[in-house]
From TrEMBL:
It holds the Pfam family PNP_UDP_1. It comes from Bombyx mandarina (Wild silk moth). GO terms for cellular component: cytoplasm. It is an enzyme of class 2 (transferase). Phosphate binds at residues 64, 101, 121-123, 153, 257. One of its GO terms (biological process) is nucleoside metabolic process. The lineage of its organism: Eukaryota, Metazoa, Ecdysozoa, Arthropoda, Hexapoda. The purine nucleoside phosphorylases catalyze the phosphorolytic breakdown of the N-glycosidic bond in the beta-(deoxy)ribonucleoside molecules, with the formation of the corresponding free purine bases and pentose-1-phosphate. Keywords: Glycosyltransferase, Transferase. NCBIfam families: PNPH, PNPH-PUNA-XAPA, PRK08202.1. GO terms for molecular function: purine-nucleoside phosphorylase activity. This is Purine nucleoside phosphorylase. It catalyses: 2'-deoxyinosine + phosphate = 2-deoxy-alpha-D-ribose 1-phosphate + hypoxanthine; guanosine + phosphate = alpha-D-ribose 1-phosphate + guanine; inosine + phosphate = alpha-D-ribose 1-phosphate + hypoxanthine; 2'-deoxyguanosine + phosphate = 2-deoxy-alpha-D-ribose 1-phosphate + guanine. Residues 58-313 form the Nucleoside phosphorylase domain. Pathway: Purine metabolism; purine nucleoside salvage.
Length: 327
C-alpha cells in the first residue's frame, strides 16, 4: 500500500472545505478566510425569504438569558405568527453551542411590527471567527432589516450597578479590535458598506432617548442605566487585574459578544440599539469569595424575563414608529 501523504490529506480536506463553505478573502499570508461572498449570503437570505411571507423590519439578537432560550414568557415566545427555523436548517449558518442559546431564527410580529429574532448568537469563544459570528447580521440586512436590537448579559463593572439592572449601551470599546481582530478584517465588499466605516454614532441617539422615556413610562427607570460595554474573547471570566484595568478606561459592563455585531450592522447601515442585562457584579478585589459563573447569568435572565419582554416589546413599537425609513 502506498504511504499516506500528509499533503494529499490537507489538499483533499481543503477541497472539501471549499466546496461546503464558500468563504472568500484571505489575510496577507493568503490562508485565512475572512468571510462569505455577497452572493452566498444572498442564497441564505433567499432561502429564508422562501419560508416567510413578510420581510422583517427589526432584527433582535437575544443574548444569554435575554430570550435566547424558549421559555414561557420570554421575548422570543411572545412573537406572534412565529415561523421558527433552526440554525442547522439554514444554508451557510453556524450552529449555537452555548448552554441557554436555543439556536433558531424566529420570524413574526411584536406589537404588530415585523421582526426576526435570533434565539441564541455566535461567540468567538465557540471557535467561530468574528466574521462568522456576525454573518446573521449581514443576512438580516439582505432580508430588509433596518434596525438591530442587540441584547446581552454582562458583568457590571460600574460600582453603582446592581444585579438585574439594565444598561442602555451608549458606546463600546472594541478591545479585540485593538489587537486587529475585527469582523470587517479582509477584503471589503462595497455592496455591504464602505472600507472605513465611522463608529462615533454606533448606538443610535434617538433610540437611546426613546429607551429612557419608555423606561419612565414602565416605571423601571430606577434600574435602567446607560454606559459603555466592552467585549472580551472569553470563554473565561476576567481576572481582578483585568477588570480593574477595564474600569480605569471607562468600561461599565463586560461581556463576550455584541461589539462585532454592532460594527457589522453599522457597516451595512443598520441602525443599532444595544441593551445589557447586568447578571453579575464584576469582582474587582482579591478578598471576595464569590466567583463568576454562567448559571448565575442564566438565573438572572430568567428572573428578568417578564420585564425584558415588556420593555423590548415597547421599544420595538416605538423604534419602528420613530424610524422614518420603516414601512
Ligand atoms: O453576550 P451573551 O451572549 O448575552 O452572553 C454572555 O454570557 C455568557 C457568559 O455567561 C457569555 O456568552 C457572555 O457573552
Ligand atoms: O462578568 C462577565 N464577564 C464577561 N462576560 C459576561 N457575561 C455575563 N457576565 C459576564
Amino acid at each position: 500500500m502506498a504511504p499516506i501523504n500528509a499533503n494529499d490529506i490537507v489538499e483533499k480536506n481543503c477541497l472539501v472545505t471549499q466546496k461546503v463553505l464558500p468563504e472568500i478573502g484571505s489575510d496577507c499570508n493568503g490562508n485565512e478566510k475572512t468571510g462569505y461572498s455577497y452572493e452566498t449570503l444572498v442564497e441564505t437570505a433567499n432561502f429564508l425569504l422562501s419560508r416567510i411571507s413578510e420581510k422583517p423590519n427589526i432584527g433582535i439578537i437575544c443574548g444569554s438569558g435575554m430570550g435566547s432560550y424558549w421559555k414561557e414568557g420570554s421575548l422570543a415566545e411572545s412573537i406572534t405568527d412565529g415561523v421558527r427555523i433552526p440554525y442547522e436548517d439554514i444554508p451557510n449558518f453556524p450552529i449555537s453551542t452555548v448552554e441557554g442559546h436555543h439556536g433558531q431564527l424566529v420570524f413574526g410580529h411584536i406589537e404588530g411590527v415585523s421582526v426576526v429574532a435570533m434565539q441564541g448568537r455566535f461567540h468567538y469563544y465557540e471557535g467561530y471567527p468574528l466574521w462568522k459570528c456576525c454573518l446573521p447580521v449581514r443576512v438580516m440586512k439582505l432580508l430588509g432589516v433596518k434596525i438591530l436590537i442587540a441584547t446581552n448579559a454582562a458583568g457590571g463593572l460600574n460600582p453603582n450597578y446592581k444585579i438585574g439592572d439594565l444598561m442602555i449601551v451608549r458606546d463600546h470599546i472594541n478591545m479585540m479590535g485593538f489587537a486587529g481582530n475585527n469582523p470587517l478584517h479582509g477584503p471589503n465588499d462595497e455592496r455591504f458598506g464602505p472600507r472605513f466605516p465611522p463608529m462615533n454614532k454606533a448606538y443610535n441617539y434617538e433610540f437611546r432617548k426613546i429607551a429612557k422615556e419608555v423606561a419612565k413610562e414602565l416605571n423601571i427607570d430606577h434600574i435602567v442605566r446607560e454606559g459603555v460595554y466592552t467585549c472580551l474573547g472569553g470563554p473565561n471570566f476576567e481576572t481582578v487585574a483585568e477588570l480593574n484595568m477595564l474600569k480605569m478606561v471607562g468600561v461599565d459592563a463586560v461581556g463576550m459578544s455584541t461589539v462585532h455585531e454592532v460594527i457589522t450592522a453599522r457597516h451595512c447601515d443598520i441602525k443599532v440599539f444595544g441593551l445589557s442585562l447586568i447578571t453579575n457584579e464584576c469582582i474587582t478585589n482579591y478578598d471576595q469569595d464569590a466567583e463568576a459563573n454562567h448559571e448565575e447569568v442564566l438565573d438572572v435572565g430568567r428572573m428578568r424575563q417578564e420585564m425584558l419582554r415588556k420593555y423590548v416589546s415597547c421599544l420595538v413599537k416605538k423604534f419602528s414608529q420613530a424610524d422614518p425609513d420603516a414601512p
